[in-house]
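pasting for the record
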Amino acid sequence: MMMKILTKIITLICLVTLFFYLFLSESNIAFLKVDAKSDGSTIGGIEIEDLDKKEITSRLGLAIEDWKRDTKLVLEGKGINLTLDTNYFIFDVEASVNQYLNASQKPWYAFWKTDSIVHIPLQITIDPKLLTLIEENSLLNKEKTIENIKAQVAVLSKIPIEAVLVDLTALESERIAFSLEEVSINTIGLSEIIAALNEQVISTGDVFSFFEETLEISGVYNDETADFVASLLYSTILQTDFEIVERHSQGVVPTYLEPGIEANIDLNANKDLKFINKSNPAVLKVSLKDSSLLVELYSLPAETVGKYEVRDTQVVKPRTIYRYSSDLKAGEESLIQEGSPGLKVTVYRIISDKKGPYENEEIVSQDYYSPTHRIILKSSLTPELTPVVDPDLEIDLNADGLPDVENGNSDSNKSGNNNPDNKSSDNSGADEDINTGEGSGKTNLEDDLDSLPEGSYYDKAGNIITPK
């Protein structure tokens, strides 16, 4: 009796043990499965149902070659856009096939079961160059990003891979630079630009382009608004150690900020504002504070601090430009444009250590603002000359009712005195040479005096007085 009971107990234990063994075996197979749309078994998303080991190996090799040749693999995320070379991934086809065969093999004791459908990923190894590239990007959560890359490459996926970012709130621990300026211009599309730029993450080594960040809304804002926002952004960047790649002056002294600090954005002329982040990742914040625009940069605490200075200012005086027109009366003139001075300025950036005496100064730009020249329009007509009578030449000593010396134009007399050979004439004959006689050089009055008797002279009435 006891033997029967013992036999039953042993049999029951064996059945329970077999049940748990079969259950655990099924669990192991399920663990190896991956999501796939195929009804049959797959390795790395490639169907290999009813194929032997050699055929499976060949099919996987061809699929991997096609994937490497035709796939443009991209790692995407906020502030992240990296193209990954497919040659960074090394596939172990043989190990993948062996894993599949082990997972799909039916145990002898489960002879009544149908063949298992198994979906497993390809076994891969990542090139150290890619690991270094990911580690150098301080925005990425390295472990989780690599995990995502492996998961998608192992099934030969062609869709963009999601980059897993670090906690960005840590980047906002310190405001490293800012600019605040009242909006004093007629802005169009300002809110759209703010939305496009706000919360942008600028990673280490990233090239920031105003064009690229606002390309989708380029038809919404006007040039004046773009110049205003870009100028404040440029002013903010000058307070950091970011490298300025491209910046253009507006060419005129702006109504906001200082000369030399403004920036010009022109899509048609290919004028952009570009800079490279050479330090820790930073978060750009752009917002409106009442009637002012605020541009801020947040990042991890830095050991250095930056500032800019505008020096060596030189005033460029305007010139006066004369233009002539026959539409104005003789001697008349009109002011067309009032002049204003120009400027020459030099912008310096100073990077200094917060704790030590270290300081580095560099010239960022030298800007020239042309003066506005004064323009005067004058008449091209020559004014008529009015003869000037010299009272000293109106003496009538001989009482004949006529001046003793002919009076011509004063300017002509002066000219004649300075140059005897220079004679000018007009219709009146007023500029004729007053010298008479045969080259004696004497006037009529002198001839009359020479003809008087010796000792005689003229009195005030013009009478000849001869002493007895």
